[in-house]
Design brief:
Shape: globular
Largest sheet: 6 strands, mixed, barrel
Strand order of the largest sheet: 2-3-9-4-8-7
Radius of gyration: 27 Å
Distance between the termini: 38 Å
Low-confidence stretches: 1-44, 72-91, 477-488
Helix content: 10-25%
Number of strands: 30
């Protein structure tokens, strides 16, 4: 027989207090678990960050960035490296990779417009030591890596990149590299071979660590925009995804590690996005052939459409001099069009709203006041390419706000310097928030409008299985510190509440 007792008011109060304290402690544990998970969540594949995310760079900053970049694209200053494009001062997107044994992390620009991968070396006295991006910069030291090896100057790789044997080369000499750019920037050092770690897709939204031996430049001397005097947005180096055999995608593919295919979906609003190596099977993307014998990702543009009207433009306009086709470059911010395209395009856009008070701002931007919805008041612009591929650009993408006005983002390359005159180049102005697929196995490239914060499906060629690859945002040290500050703030508030409850 079980005895029962009637609880007194005192025991009821004690029970309520115990339950309340238990609830508080449980809540603290749950919140701490959620916050710590949010701070330390593992990211996969290539975690990409947009350096201007949330900051709203001025149009002057963006154009200055593009000007420096285009000097390298067109000047052919990278001949010692097999035709790679100039990695400008800092790219718009960067990732974190691991190099060496044990692994050291490096923040590098992800650049489809250059080929060589290089990082700053321990011998460098002019390299940046700090970065305004809030990340910790590192210097590569071959002595700290058990797998790092110098590339000798008589190795086939060195002979190829230098266009023949180096004069005075002996077996003990290392292979040098040197890049000099028109704006005076330069990087020089030696080639190193070491393990580069990356995240291999192993399941839906899951990765496992993998590595490959990669030859990369160890920068011992940097000058100009790459030197220590420029710590704004400084990074550890460049991760080249260009077309030549020097690029990291080509080296990994030649060793059988990956297919010579990759894709990116860059979120220009929230930052980060998707950058994956492999065969993308979903979403389906229409492709257009790459123009042969070009050092960059060039495609053939066939027409320009404004609203329902096609501009009366000859195809030859897009083939100025020896530069065939339109350059697709995610490292350039704006979009540059030949004068014979720019003038009728801008005139057609403005004619949609008769009576606009059009003015030139800062001697180069066509601007006007407009208080209604720009997507309702102005037409989309569609670029057409070979093989029926098109690229649609909406008004909110090609118009930007400047000094309480709306300004047209298209830039007139016909007014640029001789080297860049009448260039056709499409950058992030039109490529952001689109999945861009590079298939170097078949020499084609394509794109489609896409939500860059969602997932894509990539085929595992070894097993035939298909896996989801998601978007990521690579947090800088600065943002991580802010997150930990928030965690500590909440923790202190919760602890204060707990002690108050206990005392009560």
């Amino acid at each position: 027989m079980t005895m029962t007792t009637t609880p007194t008011p005192t025991t009821i109060a004690m029970a309520i207090t115990i339950l309340r304290r238990s609830f508080v402690v449980s809540t603290v544990v749950l919140l701490l678990s959620l916050m710590i998970t949010a701070v330390s969540a593992h990211t996969g594949v290539l975690n990409v960050k947009y350096k201007y995310a949330g900051q709203g760079p001025s149009i002057t900053q963006l154009k200055a960035h593009d000007t420096r970049r285009q000097l390298g694209i067109l000047a052919g200053v990278d001949l010692p490296l097999g035709g790679s494009g100039r990695p400008d001062a800092v790219g718009l997107y960067y990732a974190k990779i691991g190099i060496g044994t044990p692994t050291q992390d490096y923040y590098v620009q992800v650049d489809t417009g250059s080929d060589i991968m290089w990082v700053n070396c321990i011998q460098c006295t002019e390299c940046p030591r700090r970065s305004s991006l809030g990340i910790d910069l590192s210097l590569y030291n071959i002595k700290d890596s058990a797998t790092g090896k110098m590339v000798p100057c008589n190795q086939e790789f060195c002979v190829e990149v230098n266009g023949g044997p180096l004069t005075g080369c002996t077996a003990n000499d290392s292979c040098p590299y040197l890049q000099i750019y028109e704006d005076g920037s330069s990087t020089a050092g030696v080639f190193i071979k070491d393990l580069v770690l990356y995240d291999r897709v192993s399941g839906d939204l899951q990765t496992t660590s993998a590595n490959g031996s990669i030859i990369f430049g160890c920068g011992a001397r940097q000058a100009g925009d790459l030197g220590s005097s420029n710590e704004d947005e400084a990074l550890d180096g460049i991760l080249g995804f260009g077309k030549s055999n020097l690029s990291i995608i080509s080296q990994l593919a030649s060793s059988g590690k990956v297919k010579k295919m990759f894709a990116h979906c860059l979120d220009g609003v929230n930052g980060g996005g998707i950058f994956a190596i492999g065969h993308v099977v979903q979403p389906k993307v229409n492709m257009t052939p790459l123009v042969p014998n070009q050092p960059h990702y060039n495609v053939n543009m066939t027409a320009v459409q404004v609203g329902q009207v096609f501009l009366n433009i000859s195809i030859e306009v897009f083939e100025a001099g020896d530069r065939k086709g339109t350059v697709i470059d995610s490292g350039t911010t704006l979009a540059y069009l030949p004068e014979l395209v720019y003038e009728p395009l801008v005139s057609k856009i403005i004619s949609q709203q008769p009576g606009l008070n059009v003015q030139t701002v800062r001697d180069e931007y066509t601007c006007f006041q407009y208080s209604e919805s720009i997507d309702d008041g102005f037409p989309p612009v569609v670029f057409h390419f070979e093989n029926s591929l098109s690229l649609k650009v909406y008004p909110h993408e090609y118009l930007f706000s400047l000094e309480s006005l709306w300004c047209i983002g298209w830039q007139n390359s016909g007014r640029q310097s001789r080297d860049r005159m009448n260039l056709t180049l499409l950058g992030d102005l039109v490529l952001s928030n689109k999945l861009v697929v590079y298939d170097l196995e078949n020499q084609v490239i394509g794109w489609t409008e896409y939500n860059c914060s969602s997932n894509i499906k990539v085929l595992d060629d070894q097993t035939g299985t298909i896996h989801l690859v998601g978007s990521h945002y690579l947090a800088s040290a600065c943002s991580l510190n802010i997150r930990w500050a928030i965690v500590l703030l909440f923790l202190s508030m919760l602890l204060h509440y707990i002690f108050t409850e206990i005392l009560l």
